[in-house]
Amino acid sequence: MSDQRWSYLTDMDGVLVHEEHLIPGADEFLAELRNGGASFLVLTNNSIYTPRDLRARLLHSGLDVPEEAIWTSALATAKFLQAQRPNGSAYVIGEAGLTTALHEVGYVLTDNDPDYVVLGETRTYSFTAITRAIRLIERGARFIATNPDPTGPSREGILPATGSIAALIERATGRSPYYVGKPNPLMMRSALRALGAHSEHTLMIGDRMDTDVHSGIEAGLQTVLVLSGISTRESAERYPFRPTLVVDSIADLVGRTEDPFGAA
């Protein structure tokens, strides 16, 4: 590859943690990145939490990740809207992670003729709020969704997530949302800008072929699939694209962060 130091983008759930439990080796991997001076960002399609919230949750799992090293679909959505329509307005269905990110880029949150309807993740989707969103979109508001994930995990089983609610709104309005999060490579490119890194020397680590590896490849990154989350070796073979490297878990990259492919 190249003698230049690698930068790393890594998914969170299924790579570093699983249902708030540390995946063995994740702490050693992040410590090796810090000790080696490698730049990195932890990425998540989940828009519920702010980076501060996620830092606290990761600390509880045994991982010390600074706020500035956490990049969410909410942050990527806010950056996208700031670039598209600075100081605009939005009607938001979501939690603090999304509303805080939009406020911080100068957006006004309103249900009075907003520029955008922005749909994010929440554990308490309201039929009233969804109906309001449908009516605003019918009146001309542009439809944005933070990510296309149809379901999310919980201790009791799967939950409907942003993609499922977006499908409901799309069916009612006939208007498709623009998804900002993975697998849209926009999420990766916004993360690269936040990191100050170049795609040629950046590696994406994820547990899903359909989001992590897909978006990594489209953004021009080298990709590593870990088998500690969603995708398996068998399911990965069904895709027309391949990750650069497949490993059982993040632990397999410990000791290899300077030259992850040379040691393969």
Task: Describe the protein in words.
Belongs to the HAD-like hydrolase superfamily. InterPro entries: HAD-like_sf, HAD-SF_hydro_IIA, HAD_sf. This is HAD family hydrolase. Keywords: Carbohydrate metabolism, Hydrolase, Magnesium, Metal-binding. With about 260 residues, the chain is α/β, with parallel strands linked by helices. The chain folds into two domains: about 110 residues, Rossmann fold; about 110 residues, 3-Layer(aba) Sandwich (Rossmann fold). It contains nine helices and 15 strands. Strands 5-4-1-13-14-15 form a six-stranded parallel β-sheet, with helices on both faces. Strands 7-6-8-9-12 form a five-stranded parallel β-sheet, sandwiched between helices. Strand 10 and strand 11 form a beta hairpin. The two termini are about 10 Å apart. The model has no long low-confidence stretch (mean pLDDT about 95).
SSE string: EEEHEHEHEHEEHEEEHEHEHEHE
CATH-level-2 architecture of the largest domain: 3-Layer(aba) Sandwich
Q: With helices defined by DSSP (H or I, 4 residues minimum), what is the helix count? A: 9
**Residues in helix, %:** 25-40%
Strand line-up in the sheet with most strands: 5-4-1-13-14-15
Q: What's the total count of β strands?
A: 15
Structural class computed from helices and strand pairing: alpha/beta
CATH topology of the largest domain: Rossmann fold
Question: What is the average per-residue confidence, as pLDDT, rounded to a whole number?
Answer: 94
What summary fits the major beta sheet?
A: 6 strands, parallel
Cα distance, first to last residue?
12 Å
As residue ranges, the low-confidence spans are: none
Tally of distinct domains: 2
State the fourth-level CATH superfamily of the largest domain: HAD superfamily/HAD-like
- Using only C-alpha atoms, the radius of gyration works out to 18 Å
